[in-house]
Specification:
Radius of gyration: 18 Å
Number of strands: 9
Helix content: 40-55%
CATH topology of the largest domain: Spore Coat Polysaccharide Biosynthesis Protein SpsA, Chain A
Largest sheet: 9 strands, mixed
CATH superfamily of the largest domain: Spore Coat Polysaccharide Biosynthesis Protein SpsA, Chain A
Order of helices and strands: EHEHEHEEHEEHEHHEHHH
Distance between the termini: 33 Å
Number of domains: 2
CATH class of the largest domain: Alpha Beta
Length: about 280
């Protein structure tokens, strides 16, 4: 079984040092550790975050994990940062990690086993289910369930995001084959999944809950409002203009998803919990 993989994370100035430290701890607790870890520092990150990153670098050194830093002189956003980080990764398998989420110790072992199965050699990306917490992972406040089979993913991908981005493991060569991450604020991952499906690649999920995702009072607020509606319209027009989605789907998405973006925050939070 191929066990060598790169870890990939983007960090910017507004991250919580405590949550970042906890996220790093969960990475270092993996039953299969990364051979290298690529940290994209998306602009200056400040003293406190720098101290946590230095601690992680030392811990990686103690475990013979090569750590690679990609430094953006200014904040460029997640899409550009992950595109740069992807190119810096040395291994075919890449595990995505978020800076405020906690990973089940067996997360990478489960996913690498899945990707290495003979029947799954045509899978480009695999994700997992997530549980959501605010104060403590012992007090869960929600879950986001995503489809397991490729057929179900392929049916839903043009209507809603079928993967939890912070859970995914993918094959670098295939991601690069569709030109990788793009600068599509709010939809960097979803845009990538659509392009993969449109180019004939398979993406799927395992049924296990392998990541505990941190949410706060602003999580749902960031997914709504006029600003996010503009991002939604840009994204939908982009995939429509590239013939990834047809006119009926485009109109449906603009109408349904546009209304959702303008819902009051409490309604938006309730809707997400109902759907997931």
């Amino acid at each position: 079984m191929v066990e060598d993989y790169s870890g990939l994370m983007s960090i910017y100035s507004k991250e919580s040092p405590d949550l970042l430290r906890n996220a790093f701890d969960s990475i270092l607790a993996q039953t299969i550790l990364p051979k290298e870890f690529v940290c994209v520092l998306d602009g200056p990150i400040g003293l406190k975050l720098t101290e946590v990153v230095k601690w992680f670098k030392s811990e990686c050194s103690n475990r013979n994990i090569k750590i690679v830093f990609v430094k953006n002189p200014v904040n460029c956003g997640l899409g550009i940062s992950l595109a740069e980080g992807l190119r810096a990764c040395s291994y075919e398998y890449i595990g995505r990690f978020d800076s405020d989420d906690l990973n089940n110790p067996e997360r990478m072992e489960v996913m690498l086993n899945y990707m290495n199965e003979d029947k799954n050699q045509d899978i480009a990306v695999v994700g997992s289910q997530i549980a959501e917490f605010s104060d403590s992972p012992q007090r869960l406040i929600g879950r986001r369930k995503v489809p397991i089979s490729f057929n179900e993913v392929a049916q839903k991908v043009f209507l809603r995001n079928p993967l939890n981005h912070m859970t995914v493991v993918f094959r670098k060569s295939i991601i690069l084959a569709v030109d990788g991450y793009k600068d599509m604020p709010g939809f960097e991952d979803y845009y990538l999944w659509m392009r993969l499906i449109d180019n004939g690649y398979k993406i799927t999920n395992v049924p296990d809950t392998l990541v505990y995702a941190h949410v706060d009072g602003n999580t749902y607020a960031r997914r709504g409002g006029i600003g996010y509606l503009r991002k939604e319209l840009k994204f939908q027009y982009s995939v429509y203009s590239q013939n990834i989605i047809g006119t009926p789907t485009f109109v449906r998405n603009i109408f349904v998803r546009g209304i959702v973006r303008l819902l009051p925050q409490k309604w938006l939070a309730g809707l997400y919990k109902l759907l997931h």
